[in-house]
Amino acid sequence: MRVLGLQSGTSHDGIDAAVVEFRVDGVGPHGAVLRGTVLHTAETPYAPELRARLVAALPPVGTTLAEVCELDTLIGQAFAEAAAAAADAVGGVDAVCSHGQTVFHWIEEGRARGTLQIGQPAWIAERTGAPVVSDVRIRDIAAGGQGAPLVSLLDDLLLRNAVAEGGVAAALNLGGIANVTVVGSGPVLGYDIGPANALIDAVIQDRGLDERGYDADGRIAAAGRVDEGLLAALLDDPYYALPAPKSTGKEHFHLAYVREHVAAQGRGIADADLVRTLTELTVRTVARDIAARGAALLAVSGGGAHNRVVMDGLRAALDGIEVVSADALGAPADAKEAILFALIGWCTLHGVPAVLPGATGATAPRILGTITPGSGPLRLPEPVAGIASLTLDGSAHSADPRALG
């Protein structure tokens, strides 16, 4: 079965796509022996006008239901075009799984109460003719989970054989938010650590420091110095002390958050120093958590993996821990989350739960998402009991050097 995974993350840059051909090499007592071949990956930036409207509608700014409706359609159409291009590139797909674009993640007293992803899947089904799995987070929340991080499903399968028996390995995604999966220390653990690129990107875009909207290679941060007073105040955020599993987003970590902290310092802070300090915030919070988990291996993916100040800082702070790209595990670092959603789509269509309770906090595993039929009758494959193992091979890489999620 060929499944196309689509996603746009908390950086709101555009759409990641990955087509994965899954086949079952055997079925044992613990489930299917699954092999996935990555046939195609691509990254499609949002049109500048659409991205500007999306960013303008995000918290803490207020918006209208009319704007949400229009964005739901426009983003759905953008996803549909990206899906059609990816499907055409491989001669067609059997199904699509679309994460859509998160616009709000409702956290109250440390618990997820709801989540909203837009990008109407009917446009994708109409454009491609394939059935579409979508709205994949809310079932986990309804089951008591945080709705995130869902990537722990893929991380667990890829990390199981990455370290010696009894060892601990971790997978880190540095998108807008930094999330981690820890395998080998008992039940799989996953959670959002805190901001990765979210605050850095917000400042760069607000101050026009780079027309690309992010700190390419960490060049701006490298020109600045850490403001220890500001950093201490940022590190004092109560979120970091919350127990895992936990989740967060731009509802908490946004431009106004930075402005409030800078204003509280009562002095000017140079642009490069501010970017360097926010970069160090990511390094300190991630390194502290990874070290505390006792990991011997850390596999990194996401846009932040291309920031040399972040990566150099992590390697220095995590002396003795092997820090590698997620490519080493068979998942292209810049397409990993799109591959995840292809996997979730396969799971949903085969009746396989895609929730790890230790990662999200759900009371039990759940089959995720809703299904929009394609151009013909909806015919589901025979269910399987679960996935015993997953091997990814034939990884196709996209040309863009920076992940969009």
Description:
By secondary structure, the chain is an alpha/beta fold. It has 13 helices and 13 strands. Strands 1, 2, 3, 4, 5, 6, 12 and 13 form an 8-stranded mixed β-sheet that branches. A 5-stranded mixed β-sheet has the order 9-8-7-10-11. Helix 2 (65-89) runs parallel beside helix 3 and helix 8 crosses helix 10 (271-293).
How are the secondary structure elements laid out?
Layout lengths: L1 E7 L5 E15 L2 E15 L2 H10 L7 H25 L5 E14 L2 E8 L2 H8 L3 E3 L3 H5 L9 H8 L9 E6 L2 E7 L5 E7 L2 H10 L11 H4 L5 H8 L19 H11 L5 H23 L3 E5 L6 H10 L4 E4 L10 H14 L7 H4 L9 E3 L14 E7 L12
Parallel strand pairs: 1-4, 3-13, 4-6, 7-10, 10-11
Antiparallel strand pairs: 1-2, 2-3, 4-5, 6-12, 7-8, 8-9
List its traits:
alpha/beta, eight-stranded mixed β-sheet, five-stranded mixed β-sheet, 13 strands
